[in-house]
User: Which sequence fits this backbone?
């Protein structure tokens, strides 16, 4: 069941999203060669709790940390580790969920560590554009879920030839971390295609691979890597459909 949110509830999710956005901005200064993914997680955890939020990934289905830190060929759900040290040319996606006063927001960005190759930078730029295009598609009059999916998929695959992850999707968010509906980054007649009505709050999160769309699950039960070992990027915002259009809720 899709749980639409009222104005007051959207205000709450926006407040949660602001803490999350500030946290991602803080990490932009912090992430550099020599820093471990555990350090990144620690900084984020500390930032969120100092701002009275709860890092909602921690303990979710037994997940062990405050953030998911996914480096290079890790697409999502990378587990922070003291042994994993970032080096020049790496990319790292940091996926964070914050609960504030009971309202949940979800956002991700892929950071470039020092100078990355032109090829990898391009993948990152295109993935971010996919997110922007998905959000813009939601703005269309009488838009449906498929308009978002199509905008993301066309830009990533049709225009740039990148692999689009199919095994994981965006989702409803706000009262819980994962709510209905699913927000796929590909078009399929098998997926429900709800109308985007005012009060709908969703996380749009393109996961785009340089090579194949196929992924493999690691034995730790969390880490998801690209099947071919090529890099992947991930950008995510929580947005609300309102009477007057679309609002991004994970902004500073
Ligand atoms: N933030 C992730 C998402 O976008 C959820 C991570 S859940 C965790 O769906 F348990 F892995 F942290
Ligand atoms: Co999400």
Assistant:
């Amino acid at each position: 069941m899709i749980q639409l949110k009222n104005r007051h509830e959207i205000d709450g999710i926006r407040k949660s999203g602001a803490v999350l956005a500030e946290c991602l901005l803080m990490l932009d200064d912090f992430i550099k060669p020599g820093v471990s993914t555990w350090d990144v997680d620690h900084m984020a955890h500390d930032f969120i709790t100092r701002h009275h939020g709860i890092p909602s990934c921690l303990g979710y289905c037994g997940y062990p940390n405050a953030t998911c830190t996914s480096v290079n060929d890790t697409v999502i759900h990378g587990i922070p580790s003291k042994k994993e040290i970032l080096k020049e040319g790496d990319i790292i996606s940091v996926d964070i969920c914050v609960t504030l006063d009971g309202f949940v927001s979800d956002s991700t960005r892929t950071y470039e560590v020092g100078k990355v190759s032109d090829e990898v930078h391009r993948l990152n730029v295109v993935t971010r554009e996919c997110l922007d295009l998905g959000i813009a598609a939601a703005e269309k009059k009488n838009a449906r879920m498929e308009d978002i999916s199509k905008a993301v998929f066309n830009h990533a695959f049709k225009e740039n030839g990148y692999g689009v992850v199919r095994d994981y999707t965006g989702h409803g968010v706000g009262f819980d971390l994962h709510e209905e509906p699913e927000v796929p980054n590909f078009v399929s007649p098998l997926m429900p295609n709800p109308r985007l009505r005012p009060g709908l709050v969703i996380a749009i999160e393109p996961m785009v691979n340089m090579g194949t769309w196929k992924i493999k699950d690691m034995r730790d039960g969390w880490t998801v890597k690209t099947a071919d070992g090529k890099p992947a990027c991930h950008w995510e915002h929580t947005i609300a459909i309102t009477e007057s259009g679309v609002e991004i809720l994970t902004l500073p």
Observations:
- The radius of gyration is 17 Å.
